[in-house]
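Q: How do we represent a protein-ligand complex in a form that can be generated token by token?
A: Start from the inputs.
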Amino acid sequence: MTKATLVNQPEKYWDRLFAPGGHCGIVTTVDTEGRVNAASYATCVRIVHNPVQIAFTTNPAGHTAQNLLATGSFVVNLPSFERDILEKVRVVGLPFDRGVNELEKAGLTALPSTIVKPPRIAECLRHFECEVVWTKEWIKRLMVVGNVVAASTYSDCVDAKGYLVWERVKPVAFCGAPYVNMFAAAHETMAVGMPYDGPEVADADRSVRSYFEDM
Ligand SMILES: Cc1cc2nc3c(=O)[nH]c(=O)nc-3n(C[C@H](O)[C@H](O)[C@H](O)COP(=O)(O)O)c2cc1C
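Then emit the structure tokens for the protein with flavin mononucleotide bound:
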């Protein structure tokens, strides 16, 4: 076997090297008339633990951006690594006209949310109802940050302490537009040791425990 060498990638490949970029989700919003919109987002990232906040980036001229700026809320629906739902994620990501309900186009089921107006998607296993905290527009992108105000899942997706049942949830990432139709599974987990025994280990452990009380 030949030894691999370190290769600097040209700028045109940086985007595809940083894959997957985040969680793949379907973001639902409503317009001021209450019409449902849904679009797929590869860039969903939980950026704050407490309060839980989720960010994603979108086209400022798109329906998702316009709706959440006008109405102040959105729902991040997370699909699992299953062909049927991932094909629907691709349908929802198509450029439908304003006012078209992408959930109907994809054959997905809208469930009323518990707090915000946009619906949850029944076929997605995890739902995060969000209120917009801030947005920032730059280089033709809009960064959206939402405060999670309610979250739901199915009873077989979490244990009694709310930890994921990974084999059931099968978190999924989208590899990015250059990959077109490729999704990546991220459900293999591994608890690893700490091959260092300095005082920082106990310090970090204490601070994590005080932060997440019921660990
Ligand atoms: C799997 C997948 C992931 C996507 N991720 C993003 C993303 O992170 N950001 C983005 O702006 N568009 C993304 N898109 C494209 C949008 O879903 C698409 O432009 C959609 O038509 C926007 O709809 P809207 O105008 O209703 O907001 C993605 C599409 C797919 C299929």
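The mean pLDDT is 92. The helical segments are 14-17, 63-71, 83-92, 102-106, 166-169, 199-211.
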